[in-house]
Write a structure and sequence with these properties.
The complex is a heterotetramer, with two copies of chain A (177 residues) and two copies of chain C (510 residues). Chain A has two domains: 99 residues, Glycoprotein, Type 4 Pilin, CATH 3.30.700; 68 residues, OB fold (Dihydrolipoamide Acetyltransferase, E2P). In chain A, 0% of the residues lie in helices and 56% in strands. Chain A is built from no helices and 16 strands. In chain A, the strands form three sheets. In chain A, strands 1-2-3-4-5-6-7-8 form an eight-stranded antiparallel barrel. Chain A is elongated. The two termini of chain A are 40 Å apart. By secondary structure, chain C is α+β, with helices and mostly antiparallel strands. Chain C has four domains: 100 residues, Rossmann fold (3-Layer(aba) Sandwich), CATH 3.40.50.20; 70 residues, Dna Ligase, domain 1; 249 residues, 2-Layer Sandwich (D-amino Acid Aminotransferase, Chain A, domain 1), CATH 3.30.470.20; 51 residues, no CATH class. Helices cover 36% and strands 23% of the residues of chain C. Chain C contains 17 helices and 23 strands. The longest helix of chain C is centred in the last third of the chain and has 24 residues. The chains are: A mainly beta (177), C alpha+beta (510). Chains in contact: A-C, A-D, B-C, B-D, C-D.
Amino acid sequence: MVYEIVVSGEAGGGAGGETSGKPHRLELEKAAEGWECRLDGQVVHIDAVLPRRDVLSLLVDGHAYEIKREQTATDLHMWVGSTRFAVELRDPRSLRSRQKAGSDEKGPKKILAPMPGRVVRLLVAENSEVEAGQGIVVVEAMKMQNEIKSPKKGVVKKIMATPGAAVNPGDVLAIVE
Amino acid sequence: MVYEIVVSGEAGGGAGGETSGKPHRLELEKAAEGWECRLDGQVVHIDAVLPRRDVLSLLVDGHAYEIKREQTATDLHMWVGSTRFAVELRDPRSLRSRQKAGSDEKGPKKILAPMPGRVVRLLVAENSEVEAGQGIVVVEAMKMQNEIKSPKKGVVKKIMATPGAAVNPGDVLAIVE
Amino acid sequence: MFKKILIANRGEIAVRIIRACREMGIATVVVYSDVDRAALHVRKSDEAYPIGPAPAAESYLRMDKILDVAKRSGAEAIHPGYGFLSENAKFAQACADAGVKFIGPSPHSMNLMGSKTSARREMEKAGVPFVPGTSRGLASAEEGEQVAERIGYPVMLKAAAGGGGKGMRLVHTRQELRSALESAQSEAQRSFGDSEVYIEKAIVNPRHIEMQVLADEHGNTVWLGERECSIQRRHQKVLEEAPSPIVDPDMRRRMGEVAVRVAQAASYTNAGTIEFLVDEQKNFYFLEMNTRLQVEHPVTELTTGLDLVHLQLRIAAGEKLPFAQSDVQIRGHAIECRIYAEDPDNNYFPSPGKITVLLQPAGPGIRRDSGMYEGWNVPMDYDPLLAKLIGYGTDRQQAIMRLDRALYEYFVAGIKTNISLFRRILRDDDFRAGKLDTGYLDRLLAKAAPAGASAARDSQSTKLERIAAIASGMFAVLEPSAPGSKNGSAGEAGPVPSNWKQKGRAEALR
Amino acid sequence: MFKKILIANRGEIAVRIIRACREMGIATVVVYSDVDRAALHVRKSDEAYPIGPAPAAESYLRMDKILDVAKRSGAEAIHPGYGFLSENAKFAQACADAGVKFIGPSPHSMNLMGSKTSARREMEKAGVPFVPGTSRGLASAEEGEQVAERIGYPVMLKAAAGGGGKGMRLVHTRQELRSALESAQSEAQRSFGDSEVYIEKAIVNPRHIEMQVLADEHGNTVWLGERECSIQRRHQKVLEEAPSPIVDPDMRRRMGEVAVRVAQAASYTNAGTIEFLVDEQKNFYFLEMNTRLQVEHPVTELTTGLDLVHLQLRIAAGEKLPFAQSDVQIRGHAIECRIYAEDPDNNYFPSPGKITVLLQPAGPGIRRDSGMYEGWNVPMDYDPLLAKLIGYGTDRQQAIMRLDRALYEYFVAGIKTNISLFRRILRDDDFRAGKLDTGYLDRLLAKAAPAGASAARDSQSTKLERIAAIASGMFAVLEPSAPGSKNGSAGEAGPVPSNWKQKGRAEALR
């Protein structure tokens, strides 16, 4: 098994945190005991057990790590102890590899609902010009009103959100071009 | 859905407890909300939700029950609160229904390992005559030695257990005829 | 004692009350809205009845439906929990009218304490210390200016019917006062239907410390020690502890005695909490009384060894308090973390949804009061409190380390929680030194996350990053599941920008 | 304080020590046998090393391998937990020789206390009360008869090197003595390689009550209150509580003072427990000293508010006890249930195997120290203790009700556990009245399960039986999975008689 992996560090899952973003090349091969693992050419022997779904117990040179996997519609994270890392995993041989999309600042951008909720009101009309960071839609969840903002300067091409309607995470609220 | 169900009561899962053993006829039909349930001809409306695998939340006339299902190789139990019931469930239309076997006291009887363990020693030889309740094999598990006994008077036709060997629950240790 | 009671609430507090009832041999009846059929309180109760659609106004706030369930089920009393109808005097009155015992104070006490100005007048008679200012609404801007002159700037304007920061204005100079008063009055009118605004001396860097009291219906009132509740965000408490790092036995006794006077002046019965503002010289001033069980009551339970819900039930059933003030022993230290469904990386946006993985802490000194479970879908309709994690230690240091350990064991996936925030607080130097005030948390959040500048830390980060890389590969080998394919609707919406972060303003609605 | 220690144990106690270390900033190293790779202590530690095959003699009892791991990993100290090497003076000596701190008493104290007769001689000098009898092995049957005549029948013969009931004989008359002595001596020789047997007056219906002590390495020794441990099966404790229902403050102080004298006479350091037999007149007699942390230490932690493992580590690191005897406050009541993997319906046969469903209790007053998790395969190679459930209450009654509530929430499927046994004990009238002695549990188990003769109970049973029937149908509809198809080997072995119950004799090997 060969993977290309990009890991972004985050300080304890808290606010902020720096990103390294270097891609790693990982080769994994079953050994007599455990796995032979070649990370960026460096060989380590590891012992891995899945005690339950989304939890991995890893032994590397006697060091023990419990890693938790967090998968959402949009992200893949690894928690090593209480430090969280955003991970992108590509299988070079597979077409179904995970794609990092949206890094392109040009072209139409979809504004997605980040959480389930109810659309309270629209802050702009279709075809109006907006600045980056300008509020587009207000979504209410858990007794809080949350302004969903435009990620870029542009024109609101289309608004799919309807006041009063329920939305699910990942639903497209509007498109800014 | 139609089921034939035999329930054996047990007092709190503790030692002893009486058995009623009457078979119930249960019909279940999806209603507009919840389920229409006909138990031995008596109609009750129930609301059922599975919050997780093997756990059922049941509302019947406002009464709330959390029922846990315990399945082993040999048995099916329902825990209603902390009262345990042994259950046999038959789907009259299905060939893959659960069979209650071994109630026949005649013919060969398999003696099964009730737990994982290690065979310590044999207490009888093949072809020897044994009384009901006589020890056949000693299996050790968790620092305890446990004598596995014959369920009936007869002749030990075959002994599969080998001293020193590991056994899994349900493994046949011997056959008494 | 009651044979059966109704719990007019949901979430962790409903589960906590169900547990107390089971421990006392009392059957429980709960109510639930359409989205709460699979909620933990419905799973755990003896009886459960649907009372309407998700919005609280159509279910958990419907007095008529709740009283109807009480009557149908034969419940003798109603425990309101906190929030919802718990401080609604009309509901307490409706219970009394329906012949159902309301587990809490009388409607009279609730009404008295519900208005800040009427409470203040009553309490001043009882010699309770107040922040200097008016005890009634300002008649005019002139009166405001005169009072401010007398007590000294800065001053605070406050809505009499208020709460949650609405109708509040901090005024530093005479020039600002008139317009601040007008805007506070109109905000108070909009928010509470009552424009009454009063004026107080503004306390700089106050602490928020509260005192628990219990009063039976035979005239006995005791205090059970204070809770330090200064760590707040948007006027929401986030972490509470008992005892307060700055309260010594003498101050505790003085606060306790004042709290008992407050309760007695209001003919208060059952459990209640007197909130105080404490200034930098440790002067304490009456702020308000909460006429219900508080979210943070467990820290008092751990330090006193008492069970407040058991005692609420016994008091409501007409029993006398089973101990005297001199029997109350405060021992050790307890800290509570409120685990909210909100995203610390995303301006604490709420984060309802399905909990896909849940690993929960246990072990010495750890109490967990939770309303969630793995597989549960956290609804978007109610406040985001999922669970409370409470740590007890021989001393404050041990309680802090215990919680830090337990938070390390806590893992929730599928939704976001504020667990990482508590790790930051518990490791913060000011927190460890007990240097707290109500501005503490905003200051902490304004700071960048711990820098990790040292070489040791960097090499550690690199090591963990490599472990994360290996782990993601091992997961892919051992437990393949296409990332992003879980949520159908998102998958269909096309590629999702993973680093896009909405920075919206969130408004507290309560 | 140590930076890194090794934990030479497994199961719940290894996890409990890991938690204490994490709370004190100490890194942990664990060892594991081949069948324990996925055990909780391996998942939770910072470092983990394999030390051999499943049998304890080839892994957890291998001093050489464990010391080798300590050296390789740089661990400064070793915590032995309980069982395994915890009371092995040779291991303590080997640690000292290797320059690794053994977290426990010195080899000298362990040796002294390891032999009952040498301990007795030392203790008699210190004025410790003993059951009347010999303090050394009997030279002849004649000597035995003389002593028995003097102290009066019934008498008990006991192996000097003994434990677990081996080499023990109860003798009611002079006629029985000679043959009982011979068989006790030969059993002692077979079991312990030492035929020394002594004689004591037999205490009728004794209670087993023990006193916790802590001693630092600077000469300070304190007692922390007693634990009632009379509820035993096959000399295995099953349920323990603190305080004892029969010990009043004066008796507690006297037992505590004796316990401190015992510890001081043995130059004892670290945590230890002095076991007493208590007769019906509340006379207490020294039985033995356990030179390690006890399984049941949590009930003392809950009633004193102290953490014994933290204190063990601090003492071992050379610190002084951070409090004096007069600072120790005993408050409330705590009870521990030992959750064993054994089948109450089947003569308490051990029940290893895979845990398929695990629902665990939480909430007020509940502490859970567990070594298991859902999906874990409980190995057949070690003792069957899975977890400890400890309840705390303001008083004994509340602690009982709390535990009863928590046991209601506890559910383990896939293997059998003794959870239902605790429900029986907690609801038993004698238990509730505190009428306990070491024969209590055998008497309870000999009784039939509660009859449920009343009509109300019968109608309730019928109702629940109908619910069970409906539920089994609903499961089949909502979550079909062919019953019995889970375990391949059993399925292949043909139809399995479900009501066949082996009633085998089980022998305690330890």
